[in-house]
Records
---
Amino acid sequence: MEQERVYEVFIDRETGLYDRRTMWSRLAEEVSRTHRYRYPLALMLLSFVSPNSRLAVEYLLQLAQILKRHTRASDLLARYSEDTLALLLPCTDERGALRLAERIRQLAAALSPTSAQALGIGVTSAPGGYSGNKIALVEQVEWALRQALEQEGRTVFVPAPGLVSGEKKGE
């Protein structure tokens, strides 16, 4: 019984996904590992452009159920806010994250072609050895998501803070 209560602390009751607090905790761990073990890390936020916020939330929750089946065990899918999902992708570089974003668009289109066109995806990634912090990564991906939503459902990639796309720290 006590173990169930501890588990519930980390889970969003409505979706069964991890909650925002858990995402922040895992992000801190993964940023540390990225620096120490020199593997890349990507972070993605997904949201919808819709005048009907209730329909957008329902569609996002349906997409979340599909994404649970199409992500790796090492990935973390979390409810970031009422209408936004977060996907933390350890050992994933820019190219892998953008490929996954395209795959997510295909899955969303299978769910509803009209809604898939309104899916905004913000993506950022950090190279192996990244020595920045988790807050900077989240600020980058939030900015990318805002840009994606302003462009009415696009995928926008922004490299880790202080890096130009494709540039590695120290170059």
---
Amino acid sequence: MSSTGSRPAGNAGHNFALSLAECRSLVASAHDLFAGLIEGRPEPKKKPAPATWSPSGYVWHTSDWLRIQSLRVYSVEHDPAWTPDAWVMLDPDEIDGMFHYDRLPTASGLLALRQSVALFLTATKKLDPERVIDHPSGAKPSILDILRMVSHEVPHHALDIRRGLGIT
């Protein structure tokens, strides 16, 4: 299974020139946005297609991804022993393979998302957005570049949830 099956081609509609404050605001909106889409809907754990996650699965994925990236960015900025080797490349489908997102309770996923949002806001409160890191891929992104990619997950997966629920 691939979590990318319902993703739109490219990143249409996302502004990759967001400021740190805008990235934080976008992530801060995630819980209420996703809860507003899912709560009260029948069958949020129903997969719209075999190669996608359910709307509930996207809540779980977004929660995990925000948590993981928050801890990564916090470590880069606050752990003097941090090295690029600490940034282990992760595949969202492998994480799903461990947790089986589509089987997990939706209400718990929303709670986990609320906690991951709070962690992101804490982790990004005091950092240097212009700091450049050595990424294992060979790229040299700034912390702000990373946060722009992380914040992109919110509207991107809100769209996945809307599609999965048949909301246009």
